[in-house]
Amino acid sequence: MLEFILFSCINTLLYGLLLFMLSSGLTLIFGLMNVLNFAHASFFMLGAYFAFEVSTYIGFWPALVFAPLGVALVGIFIERYGLRSVHKYGHVAELLFTFGVFYVIDELIILIWGRNPVGYKIPESLNFTLLTIMNTDFSAYRGFMIFISLAMFAVLFLVITRTRLGLIIQASLTHPEMVGSLGHNVPSVFMYVFGGGAALAGLAGVIGGNYLITEPAMAQNLGPIVFVVVVVGGMGSLTGAFVASLLIAALQTFAVGMEVSFSDLLALWEVSAPEASGFLHDLLRIEIAHTRGMLPYLFMVLMLIFKPKGLMGTREE
After folding, report:
1. CA 22 to CA 87: how far, in whole Å?
2. Domain residue limits, the chain
3. Fewer beta carbons under 10 A from the terminal one: N or C of the chain?
4. What are the backbone angles phi and psi of residue 132, rounded to the nearest 5°?
5. Which residues does residue 71 pair with via DSSP β-bridges, in sequence order?
6. Exposed, middle or buried: residue 275 (CB in 10 Å: 0-12, 13-18, 19+)?
7. What pTM was computed for the model?
């Protein structure tokens, strides 16, 4: 039992920080531009594939720099020559446009790299055991993932809340005319923020692509969870996204090892299961491990019912 709790906590930290790396860019884009980017998970996938190509020729460490920059350029191009043109038509047009971008990137990935997973591997310099806990090895690459994720959160938080650049970004959201009258190019600010959000997703792809599987389906697998994280954390809240990422990861990670049904839990808590037959009876007999995929969405629904703004959201929209 102790070993299960310990390693579930470690896996929660790893998965949760990876979710935060992916959701932080989406949170940043929505917080400044009020754009819910449906194609954000595609930038994560692009980061993994770009890293695979760069690491094949010049190694993993250059890929850690060049792959996010490449994804940032793609994001800047999309915002400048696509999203900016449809921005005046409202949120529905923006959502439809980013939805289309998602499928275009997905098809381009298949066209260039094929439908099968590519051989993006963990670098040899980090492919060793960092420490051993209860006869289970903890790899150095996992420690590296945790370090990069925490460092990224600290840098983002400090830049947004403690620097002149962060003040300009926040002011561009609430008072764009005033920021423009002070000599700042507000559309350029939006463009670079969109590119920065794409770069963060690309960095998550570089870090997570070799830990997971780099394949065309990776954006579809992680994309919906990212939106759950953003909604639960609070739209536009970086700290909320961090907390929500860990909560969602904990829900899914601990649920995997819980091979007990809901009726067993009621009995454990000395609560009598209601006399039921049919659908309700079958529902109570479902093992929690089998509900892993639906738990984040159930949690999101409860959050929308009881706290629509999310854990740390402050925006009215």
Report:
1. 24
2. 9-219+238-256
3. N
4. -120, 125
5. none
6. exposed
7. 0.86
